[in-house]
């Protein structure tokens, strides 16, 4: 009965291929990340020569073609996604942002959460009574103007005012807001037609007026000054009567709310 020496047929690991080494059958070498087994003894023939070697395993990707996770992700907080050609890295966004999908066939991105109220500016409060008699829109007074600098040109400005007023018999008063400082070409007049129309039919009397307006077209981050303006039909009107406190504010709202 024949005797088989198992030691003569096992693989023999020889490490990295060296051109000056004599390799015999069943020697196994590493070459460019792949492994090869010698099938014909020789010296100086590369493992890629199929006459002398057969490939046992193939090297993985090296990251240069965008398919290796280890080389695509480089920084703590990175997110891995696939674009049209391969794996890509989305670097960490800024604090408070959220991961936003743009739909099928689009890459993800970071988005900002609509935060609602960005800032509020109040006009200086006071008890000054202002008299209006002009038939043209004129500024009511210092307690009814406020300056605000938007943080984003895509945001909106909400204006609000309230005050006590007193008109003469058969008098009518019209109120509006004006804006100055807008260099975007959007114009400085906010509500040319007026937001309030107060009328005393037969007798003089006190009233309470409030007005609200949203400036949808700021389109700039310049400092903007908003003023309450009033016009009458020729009769005198008192704004902020009886030493009541004036109130006017400008509120910047996140454009993502609209």
Feature tags:
3 domains, Seminal Fluid Protein  PDC-109 (Domain B), mainly beta, 1 helix, 5-stranded antiparallel beta sheet, Jelly Rolls
The percentage of residues in β strands lies in 35-45%
Instruction: Indicate the mean pLDDT.
Output: 85
Structural class by helix and strand composition: mainly beta
Query: So, CATH architecture of the largest domain?
Result: Sandwich
Span between N and C termini? 92 Å
Count helical runs. 1
- Supply Rg: 40 Å
Tell me the count of domains. Answer: 3
* Helix-strand string: EEEEEEHEEEEEEEEEEEEEEE
**Main sheet specs:** 6 strands, antiparallel
Assign a percent range to the helix content: under 10%
Shape: rod-shaped
CATH topology of the largest domain: Jelly Rolls
> What top-tier CATH class of the largest domain fits best?
Mainly Beta
Low-confidence segments, given as residue ranges, are: none
Strand runs, count: 21
Task: Provide the fold topology.
Elements: E1 12-16, E2 22-23, E3 27-31, E4 34-38, E5 42-43, E6 53-57, H1 69-72, E7 79-82, E8 87-90, E9 98-100, E10 109-111, E11 117-122, E12 130-132, E13 138-139, E14 145-148, E15 156-167, E16 172-180, E17 196-199, E18 205-215, E19 224-232, E20 237-239, E21 247-253
